[in-house]
Design brief:
Length: 299
């Protein structure tokens, strides 16, 4: 039976590009032909706001799901992307699924703390829908809370976005110790998918030194793709759009597509199923020999 790969994106330090990464990896995987659900597990609702999802667009949130008030699919919101795909001459619009959040989640640590199997509430909910998606990406709160624990217990992998500054390195080492505790006590199958270097500017000596330090400390856990400092990545949330929709020809688009391929395990093969051409991104990737050629364009 097909089951989605569930991945948590976690860093207790804010401003490292965590939500930006979840949104844009989700969009990139969708463009690559994957069915994606992204879950906003932060009471601040930054992911929900990022995508321009207004309160009148949803009735239920991830909090209602955790409380057992509704089924997970009752909290789904479809978010159309700027990409369209063509199969055998017929064009359709791509979209990914979002499970939104709002301030109701702020009291979750207290309201859920005394319940049975409190660390596994999200896992139980995700198990009901894992067969409907290829990837489920969880945007964790910037804290090591019960919500973050739920995300780690539900996930197969955890990715850690790290801003390329020295202070960020110390917080990562502490975070990895916490993740190891979760592995030992609650989720032995959890793996560290990798560290994602964000806001990298190759012109800055400090950024280059931090990346070298990350390679020395964490070795192969540091993913090859680095997300370069790019103003359009900061601008896109104000337009309620992922980077592929907002600015399909940009360093941000290139970096996040490369990261998606690396996460899928296709980043080191030398094959480039994605090409950036005038007018947008062209995806000529076919998932198997029996599938028709898929062309995804963004303008």
């Amino acid at each position: 039976m097909h089951r989605a790969e569930i991945a948590a994106f976690l860093n207790q330090k804010g401003g490292v590009g965590k939500t930006t990464s979840v949104v844009n990896i989700g969009a990139g995987l969708t463009i690559l032909g994957k069915k994606v659900l992204i879950v906003d597990l932060d009471a601040q609702g930054h992911l929900t706001t990022f995508l321009g999802i207004e309160a009148d667009e949803y009735t239920n949130t991830v909090y209602d799901v955790l409380r057992g008030r509704v089924e997970p699919q009752d909290a789904f919101v479809k978010k159309p992307l700027g990409a369209r795909f063509t199969i055998n001459g017929e064009e359709s619009q791509l979209s990914m699924t979002v499970m939104p959040s709002n301030l109701d989640l702020a009291g979750a640590d207290m309201t859920l703390a005394n319940g049975p199997e409190r660390e596994s509430l999200l896992k139980k909910a995700m198990n009901k829908i894992r067969g409907d998606f290829d990837y489920i990406l969880i945007d964790c709160p910037p804290s090591l809370s019960l919500l973050s624990t739920n995300a780690l217990v539900a996930s197969k992998k955890v990715y850690i976005p790290v801003q390329t500054e020295y202070l960020a390195l110390e917080s990562v080492e502490n975070l990895m110790k916490t993740i190891e505790v979760i592995m030992d006590r609650l989720n032995p199958s959890l793996q560290i998918g990798g560290l994602i270097a964000t806001r990298f500017d190759g012109r800055k000596i400090i950024n280059r030194h931090v990346v070298e330090s990350m390679k020395e400390r964490f070795g192969s856990l540091l993913l090859n793709t680095m997300i370069r400092e790019n103003i359009v990545l900061a601008e896109s949330p104000s337009h309620g759009q992922d980077i592929f929709t907002y600015r399909p020809r940009s360093n941000g688009t290139e970096d996040y597509m490369s990261l998606c391929l690396e996460i899928m395990g296709a980043g080191s093969s030398g094959e480039r199923p994605i090409t950036v051409e005038r007018g947008g991104i062209i995806n000529r990737r076919s998932t198997d020999s029996a599938s028709p050629m898929l062309e995804t364009t963004m303008s």
